[in-house]
Prior knowledge:
Helix content: 25-40%
Strand order of the largest sheet: 3-7-8-14-11-10-9-22-23-21-20
CATH topology of the largest domain: BirA Bifunctional Protein, domain 2
Oligomer: single chain
CATH superfamily of the largest domain: Bira Bifunctional Protein, Domain 2
Number of helices: 14
Largest sheet: 11 strands, mixed
Number of domains: 3
CATH class of the largest domain: Alpha Beta
Structural class: alpha+beta
Radius of gyration: 25 Å
Amino acid sequence: MRLVSKGVTKQSEDFSKWYTDVVRQAKLADYGPVKGTMVIRPYGYAIWENFQGILNQMFKDTGHVNAYFPMFIPEHFLKKEAEHVEGFAPEVAVVTHAGGKELEEPLIVRPTSETIIWHMYKKWISSYRDLPLLINQWANVVRWEMRTRLFLRTTEFLWQEGHTAHATAEEAEEETLRMLEVYKRFAEDYMAMPVITGQKTESEKFAGAVNTYSIEAMMRDTKALQAGTSHYLGQNFAKAFEVTFQNKDNKEELVYATSWGVSTRLVGGLIMCHGDDKGLILPPRVAPHQVVIIPIFRNDTKDLVMGKVAELVGELKAVSVRVHVDDDEKASPGFKFNEWEMCGVPMRVEIGPKDIEKGQAVVVIRHSGVKHFVALTELATFLAGQVVTVQDELFQRALDFREANTHTVENWEEFKETLETKGGFIKAFWNGSAEVEAKIKEETKATIRCIPFDRPGVIGKCVYTGDEGSQQVLFARAY
RNA sequence: CGGGGUGUAGCGCAGCCCGGUAGCGCGCUUCGUUCGGGACGAAGAGGUCGGAGGUUCAAAUCCUCUCACCCCGACCA
């Protein structure tokens, strides 16, 4: 079955609608029968698989190993860490019946795995020689959210969660920041999505963490998306699950912990970071198909064209370009142009009898619409080069967009005015008070996305209270 | 949980006000002609009108109840 509809809602008309249209028409995902659930379709899953492959390698390069922990967790585990249970209890799914009868103790379906992991770590850690313990798992988790959106917030989602145990606070803090940096590199170098790293405020941090850090990206509607988090858990879970080790001096100590994760939400971020009114735009490094070849022929020229296409496919594979040939004879070339633009394939090659006669092919770049007429002998080299060029251009474009939509404001009037008329990210000083943070959120819907690492050393007047000695933070309306 | 909306063919919808043979577009199947920016013709397949009850000679249509989903808010990656 080919595409059903012609085009999507314009971004400027209704960004939310645009997003849903793109997800469904590019066949990334569909709604599941249970509220808030999502079927990730093959094309969407291929993107996720690319994410997984890259991240997995990055985790291994930083010394982590993969494991798998059960999805069902005894209910009382969750209650062991006070903040953790308070944070997660409202959105936990509970299994009360199984095997045809009521269970002795209900089971929770993991909303995250800290509790079961630390239950196991207690068994595995006894000496400083067992540390650090650096485990990651790829898994599904369930959080019963009130409002859901495909990829961005679904009842069940896929993610990876790293859980590490360390002998010292310093080492655990280092790990927390190391993994945040891994996320930043992944977002920027692979997804071509610029992010801001920083620390979460007390009210925005993970339930059970000492500190939470995040990467924050700007979507094309100028709203913020938290794209990944890394938590320094201190000894909170070690205390709750009594995980201790004997140090070199034969003394018993509680271990220090981190956890960090990114989810299928990243796919939503990718869509909203680059897409346009024609649909999806995928950066080459994560695109399932980097190049789509659309052969143009009639019955009498079919063999000629397809013969040349087969040659080109071989050449492209030899230079590691992921190529797809759309040789469906039932669809017209024009139809295919539109469909593959909708699906965000970074580059399209058109090749027909006239091209072959001239020894060339037409290359069209998805995000810019620029047409190149390239000699067949140079096509593979050209496209391999464009993989890099397009990737860079998309990152630069996203960065320029973010910078153009980031505003620094001095006072409250300016804050509200800027948020209403321009939106985007707002840099402003904040006195560190949770009440002020809550008031600002209440009055403007903007939240503190993070306290950026990269900010001026200067301190200034709080944008809400005018208090001197306030620090600069990043505000935005967020997903 | 509040506000709004929608349930009729795979998808998008009309029909409902004013009860009387269930329709349209797209998609799908077969054949032929096409093919350089969303091709065309011909012939087909496909629906317990979300569910239950009621009114009526007769209900997609009127009444009552119910379920589900989507969108907007309060919670969250």
